[in-house]
Amino acid sequence: MLVKIHEAYRKIIAICDSELLGKKFEQDNLQIDIKDGFYKGKELKEEQVLEIIEESKKEDACFNIVGRESISVALKAEIINEKNIITIQNIPHALSLL
């Protein structure tokens, strides 16, 4: 998975499955463009991503999560639940504000 942390008025953490980087998905009136500038960060293993999520729970953080593996980790970390997930061309996506 790729993880990129953006420092803004609150921490924004972009997490995506590596193979999705640079792709665009559209379905009905929904679209997601997985651009390098937002998502291309460090390639990390599940345990490392879970550590980042756990640390970020202590702050005001926003998560933007795309892809099956990334969504699975976010569910495991309990920052999202099933009702938070939308699917665009079979690609799951969720947002979370802590």
Walk me through this protein's architecture.
The chain has 98 residues and is an alpha+beta fold. The protein has one domain (2-97): uncharacterized conserved protein from methanopyrus kandleri fold like (2-Layer Sandwich), CATH 3.30.1860.10. Helices cover 24% and strands 39% of the residues. It is built from three helices and eight strands, in the order E-E-E-E-H-E-H-E-H-E-E. A six-stranded mixed β-sheet has the order 5-1-2-6-8-7, with helices on one face. It has a two-stranded antiparallel ribbon with strand order 3-4. A hairpin with a 2-residue loop joins strand 7 and strand 8. Helix 2 packs across helix 3 (68-76). It is globular and about 35 Å long.
Q: State which percent range the strand residues make up.
A: 35-45%
CATH superfamily: uncharacterized conserved protein from methanopyrus kandleri domain like
- In whole angstroms, the N-to-C terminal distance is 21 Å
Note the run of SSEs as H and E: EEEEHEHEHEE
* Gyration radius from CA atoms, angstroms: 12 Å
CATH architecture assignment name: 2-Layer Sandwich
Number of strands: 8
Task: Estimate the helix proportion, in percent.
Answer: 10-25%
Which sheet architecture does the biggest sheet show? 6 strands, mixed
The secondary-structure class comes to alpha+beta
CATH class: Alpha Beta
| Strand order in the largest sheet | 5-1-2-6-8-7
Low-confidence stretches: none
- Counted by DSSP, the helix tally is 3
Rounded mean pLDDT is: 96
Taken together, the total number of domains comes to: 1
CATH topology: uncharacterized conserved protein from methanopyrus kandleri fold like
Spatial shape: globular
